[in-house]
Design goal:
40% helix; 3-stranded antiparallel sheet; alpha+beta; 9-stranded mixed sheet; elongated; 16 helices; 487 residues; binds zinc ion
Length: 487
Amino acid sequence: MSVGTELQTRYEAVIGLEVHLQLLTGTKIFCSCSTRFGDPPNTHTCPVCLGLPGALPVLNREAVTMAMKAALALNCTINPRSRFARKNYFYPDLPKGYQISQYDEPLAEHGHVDVELNGARKRIGITRVHLEEDAGKSLHEGFPDSGQKSYIDLNRSGVPLIEIVSEPDLRTPEESYDYLTRLKTLMLYLEVSNCNMEEGSLRVDANISVRPAGAAEFGTKTELKNLNSFRFLQKALAYEIDRQIEVVSGGGKLEQETRLWDSREQRTYGMRSKEFAHDYRYFPEPDLLPLVITDEWKEQVRRSLPELPQSREERFLRAYGLPKQDALLLAASRTMADYFEEVVKLSVEPKLAANWILNDLIFLLQENGKGFVDYPVPSANMAELLSLVSKETISGKMAKDILAEMVRSGKRARDVMVEKGLEQINEPEKIAAVARQIIAAHPGQVTQYRSGKTATLGWFVGQVMKATGGQANPKLVQDILKKELAP
Ligand SMILES: [Zn+2]
């Protein structure tokens, strides 16, 4: 569905995103049960996370520290005192009948993230970052009687979450995509969450409305749920914007509702059930003291933050003179950025290292189904290969073949060269012999060169390289040809 660009330009979309992130603590937020994903159902439970009467929650300090890391990296102000609240609603995977969350006194507020589209930077406000517990999971599939029954797994009940709520500052699906990508990169850098959408450790809901371009008032918003990839979210937003414009421009009225994205049909649809209706009643959690963050604790957390992607990108531009796109790509992954810097420390020219990592190495790793964490080419091996390239001991073409073998077998560059007989021809006599043959066979080109068309030299170099299967040292080839071609 598309309403056409003419209509689209007359309206403006207003988008706000709510991101739920599971924190990477070893234990749950209010008990000492394990947070490990994928274990048999209901094996990580206790009276607290089962919601048994009389069980009392005890706050996990590590969860607070991780939430503070996230909040500080998002430029938020950490409130010295925040409070937990009970969010009441009934759902089978919520054994207590309420979720412990934060309401009017959240952990942190007033932050921002900068997005960048087509070179233009824009600041997106972060309303709040708060701590809460995850609910259990209903299992509707995979059992012989799944047609009649649903099952409950409470392993997830009580896993620590942070909710990151943005201001309604986003205007397009593309901005929203960029915002989420930057948020995820940031959280991966901080190592506070694995951000795995398939396992549900990162979940996104979107609030969206449209209004006539330039209007100050907000239109009626809908909430999009069930967005299990950033690409789906981008598509769902684009669809929903068009749908709302169509309704509003046709004089219709939008209903405030929750809608789900159907990736097969590529459309959103309204939920018939009222199970997500927002009539939560909140009240202060009487079993937990207010959360007090001392300046000392806050400063300790601030000092523990790693260099963040944006400042790393800027440093890569400044310190190594990398092209902007290279700096951006390298800094987008902490492991890749670390790897790059390790290679450069072993006295490899930064641009050469960036080029090889971002092109050949990434491509080969993907082709071999390997990630950047368990990859088989340690930085020292990469540096060795690249020093052979920069000394022109091997040609670029040979280096590519060698690297492919290094990724496959985990061997070092020199060993691969010896095995494959890929060593460069560095003996002047051998090269001179080939050069003389080629000169003798092409008198026309020789005359051209001698009459001042020095560009012909390149053609001769190419012929010698071809004749030696690319193994001749190109620098030597050039020197020898000049000598041999001299009148
Ligand atoms: Zn427990």
